[in-house]
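re: ur question from earlier - yeah i can do the single chain one, its not a big deal. heres the input i used so u can compare w yours
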Amino acid sequence: MKRLITDVLVIGGGAAGMAGAFSAAKQGVKVTLLEREAVVGGVLNQCIHNGFGLQFYHEELTGPEFAARLQSEMSQERVDVIGESYVREIDVRRKEALVLSPQGAFEIESRALVISTGARERPFGSLLIQGDRPSGVLPAGLAQRFVNLENYLPSRRAVVLGSGDIGLIMARRLTLEGVEVVAVVERMPYPGGLTRNIVQCLEDYGIPLLLSTTVTGIYGNGRLEEVEISRVDEKFTPVPGTSKKLKTDTLILSAGLLPQVEDFDNDLMIDPVNRGFIVSNTGESSIEGVFAAGNNVAVFDLVDYVAAEGWIAGRHAALFSLGENTSGDRVPVIRGENVGVLVPSIVDMEEHLRLYIRLRKPMDEGRVVLKELNYEKGFSYGVPSEMIQVVINKDKLAPLLDAGQLTVEVLT
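and the output i got, formated as tokens:
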């Protein structure tokens, strides 16, 4: 069997993988990127709306434009991209993988790994909705692919379950294609997507958003014909007497994303709240020389954050492959009050600290408090769907050595 040798092996060619490969290659090492699709870009290729790149490129781009920019940068650094490739087996400790591709099976050996496998959509079966099992129930990302890449219209009259960003964007996209979007229903008492998407995708088009509401039944003979919706209480239990049925031929699921970690979770440590890999601010995982970045660490709200973290992970992976391990003293990051998703889990003193925080609940105002660093950052309005970013220069991290930890709290 053919055997390839590379310095840095990147698994996954979305925003994090491409940025990581580009960053690693700029250090002068050999980089190989494996991507299961024929072309790199991941979900960016089907996100034809704008709003990308404002932080990473300081320019507003569409998803395909963002992907094309990164792809062009990778090609200039001669990153070896192998498309339509699948990792059949991997030994993360030895940093070796068995790969299947149209060119045949081959083994690949590396000095450092960057895992950038992204996230997957929450499946319908996990929602435990009673009723029939007709066609016409599909995840928002699949609906987006049908419309934007394959030129298929999956619906004439749709209901969207969940107010995540992909669902909000698809509510607008379907409306523009002539589909009647009856409503977006959300079981939480607040929206799950970015505020700008609530305004631009729902309010601007008069699409109702029903909060504290969920789908409690789906019905149809062959094809979906109607869904039952009900109000829910604070424990998400349907309230008796509040159910009603909506005529529809399609139910679009926007019930959240889950970090894609299944092929590696027996070896790498997983954060129980983020549900993704535990990493330091260098992107290094619980195994030395194995780095992870992007939505398989935690589900980020902006692709700019995903690409930025991929860039950092790729650079450190390259330095590790060169034997220039830049790791320094480390301390754990502790979740405090009102903190949900939190990245990273470990602070490495040799790298600037970029904290990404999701609130546990909406707050009219508050402040992020880093007790051991005597740091506070106030905000006027915060919701769980929008991450709060805090950046601390590495020169200011020294107090953490005496404290032995960093506690992150959000206080009113």
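Helices lie at 15-25, 63-76, 140-148, 165-176, 195-202, 303-321, 399-403. not sure if urs matches, ping me
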